[in-house]
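User: I'm writing a short report section on ligand binding and want a predicted complex to refer to. Could you take this sequence and zinc ion and write out the structure as tokens? A short remark afterwards would be nice.
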Amino acid sequence: MPLEPLSIYVLVDALGWELIKDRPFLDDILTEKRSLTTILGYSSGAIPSILCGRPPSEHGHWNLFYYSPATSPFRWTRPLSRLPAPLRENRVARRLLKGVARRVSGYTGYFSLHAYPVPHLPYFDMTEKRDIYQPGGLDAPSIFDVFVRHGIRWETYSYHRHTDAQILDLAPRRARQTDARVLFLYLSGLDHYLHWNVHDREGVHAQLDWYAHGLREIWRAAQQARDDVRMVLFSDHGMTPIRWTYDLARDVRALGLRLPGDYLSAYDSTMARFWVWNDRARATLEALLADHPCGQLLSPAELDRLGVWFEDGRYYHLLFLARPGLLISPSDMGHVRFAGMHGYHPSEPTADAVLLSTIEVPKPVDHITAIQRVLLGDLGVPGSGGPDMAPTPPALGSAPGSPGRSSTTRSSHQPPALEVATPVKHT
Ligand SMILES: [Zn+2]
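Assistant: Sure. The structure tokens for the complex follow:
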């Protein structure tokens, strides 16, 4: 048997602590089981925070859309805003626009217009310009860059080329045959299921059983082929059941401010972001949002503490966060009344992520920004800490990263990809 260990790292999107805290989930294998606090925001901010070991305000990735008219890949769509709405906002036109914008931009990351109105698109650029599961995929060094720097061989499988079923099918084979040190799997299907079915107890349990079975097969296959196998499973956030919806945009429209002359808006499912262009717009919006029953206007101090404050205002000037369980609908994410949503305040219990592991995890690890250090500790990367690593900073604060040191670099390699249709991924 090969002496070289194999570490299997599995990121399961939306596997919340609430889902597994009272039920078995590979408990006989993954003996470490704990909740982790997530960041404020969606997977587009949470996953980079995991991969970089830093909060969004440090690595720069937060919402998928940020204000940047000068670099917008939708600049060329400006004349379309003069068309009647039915002509530009229908499904065919939007799909065409998305395809062209994607080609024009050259972006290879997750690319979606969601339901952003066409006249608003030229104000926005997209955060995920590259495949974030590759070296150089993020605007800050990620764990994949550390792999390269330290000559750690790895294979990664994500929705970019495979569905979850395909990943769970091929991973046992790779776990047996690979000579890589790390198998990194990103499974996004549970997130999709939970958005639609989080209220369906039996259905959710069946999904969890399916994932547990698939992961057990990978574990078994790896163990049959080698002596030293480790598995660390983690998630980016949980899923909060939706109890009611609210049309916040209607309240904002009633203020009589001019859009885009006075302000610009972006309505996500759980938060509304505003850019204000004059004092009157700011004061009027603040008066509405500071005393709104559906949520709270977050202060710059709190946003800073949550690690999502950006001095240049690219993601927002004002940020209104909905109460847990309230879905802002309709929104620029669409008109769908989802059963579950994430992106509420990180203090909400259903927002918690998980960390499950075959290896011992230091007690202070309680935030998703600490996952990277756990993984690098497992690999013995210098500076990552290991068993005596420094305590994690306050749960809702910022975390220091894990700067690796140089060493000889061997080539990492990627396995041949199966040619399949692009699977659906939600944020
Ligand atoms: Zn999601």
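A remark for your report: The chain has a mean pLDDT of 88. The chain has two domains: 6-59+131-240+348-388, 243-337.
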